[in-house]
Design a protein that fits this description.
The chain is an alpha+beta fold. The protein has helices spanning about 1-20, 85-100, and strands spanning about 40-45, 55-60, 65-70, 110-120, 125-135, 140, 145-150.
Length: about 160
């Protein structure tokens, strides 16, 4: 309980200081609080049961790998993008440029990226989503983040078993 109060107090101080008119850091301050948005779900289309251990790749449309899990394990948590990956660094820089014109703005930038999900016995899913960023963090991922896998052969898009 005390730990929660201390954390809450520190966050409140950062927010109060950052919002003060005399604060001179471009009137902006990034906190350690990340924007929360629902993570992706990988489920069996027939039963609705969660699928764990799917092969997972998140990449830019240029082919730069953002997140990858090639090991068939028992994990159920998949990550779409992260503030510190290649896409995050690039979009943060673009957002900084857009923020320069307005000192109270956190700027914005967005870019499409691709997700590939594969699992033995299922058809591979390839989907494009859009990442929205500001100078601090990923703000939103736009698109369908529920991956309903259908039983069947992997198909030509299975980049894990059929490398291009």
């Amino acid at each position: 309980m005390i730990r929660k109060l201390v954390v809450f107090g520190l966050v409140a101080v950062v927010l109060i200081v950052a919002s003060a008119p005399e604060f001179k850091w471009g009137h902006r301050a990034c906190t350690a609080i990340y924007s929360l948005f629902p993570g992706p779900r990988v489920v069996d289309a027939e039963t609705g049961a969660r699928i764990s251990g799917a092969y997972w790749r998140s990449e830019t449309l240029r082919g730069e790998v953002l997140r990858e899990s090639l090991e068939d394990g028992d994990h159920e948590r998949y990550l779409l993008v992260h503030d510190n990956d290649v896409l995050g660094e690039r979009l943060t820089e673009v957002a900084k440029v857009s923020a320069k014109s307005d000192s109270s703005s956190y700027g914005s930038a967005s870019e499409p990226f691709r997700i590939v999900v594969a699992k033995a016995g299922y058809v591979t899913i390839v989907r494009e989503l859009i990442a929205d960023w500001n100078i601090c963090h990923v703000q939103e991922v736009v698109g369908d983040t529920e991956f309903r896998m259908v039983k069947g052969p992997p198909g030509p898009d299975d980049i894990f078993r059929n490398p291009h």
